[in-house]
Design a protein that fits this description.
150 residues; alpha/beta; single chain
């Protein structure tokens, strides 16, 4: 388990004027290999904590984040009601912001992007895609059949 000194909660401003809640997990910054987790729709960054802890134990510097309007990146209801951001903004604004932040913090690192569902699909809108060394996309679609019931 990571200590509180190895987990840093960060609030990052975006070009669209809102803030994203992100978390950096690291045991050491000697590796200088960064991983960014881009989550599925509505999935909180905390969902990936066990996986991220494992990656940090291997020496990776890992960033997770909540998209605007989700979890700790949420906003008040009135602001969300007037929200003009769309799916494209998840890649062009939110995902791009966390990539730029990680690259600014660790400029010599070429980040690895690990995505889940929509996190991979919005990559096409991310103008910072050139910064990635590797990309792993996990997309799950459709219903799950369990005991013959969807």
């Amino acid at each position: 388990m990571l200590s509180s000194g190895e987990v840093q909660e960060i609030l990052i401003g975006t070009p669209k004027g809102h803030s994203l809640s992100a978390t950096q997990f690291s045991i050491s910054d000697k590796n200088l290999r960064t991983v960014i987790i881009s989550s599925a729709t509505g999935v909180l960054q905390n969902f990936y904590r066990k996986f991220v802890t494992y990656l940090a134990s291997l020496g990776y510097i890992v960033f997770t984040f909540d998209y605007y309007g989700v979890g700790k990146s949420g906003s008040d209801m009135e602001r969300l009601k007037s929200n003009e951001l769309d799916l494209k903004s998840g890649g062009s604004n939110d995902q791009a912001t966390i990539v730029a932040f990680a690259k600014e913090r660790y400029p010599q690192s070429e980040p690895i992007l690990i995505t889940h569902s929509i996190g991979g699909q919005i990559l096409g809108f991310n103008p910072n895609y050139r910064h990635f060394d590797k990309i792993a996309i996990k997309v799950v679609t459709g219903a799950i059949l369990r005991d013959g019931i969807f």
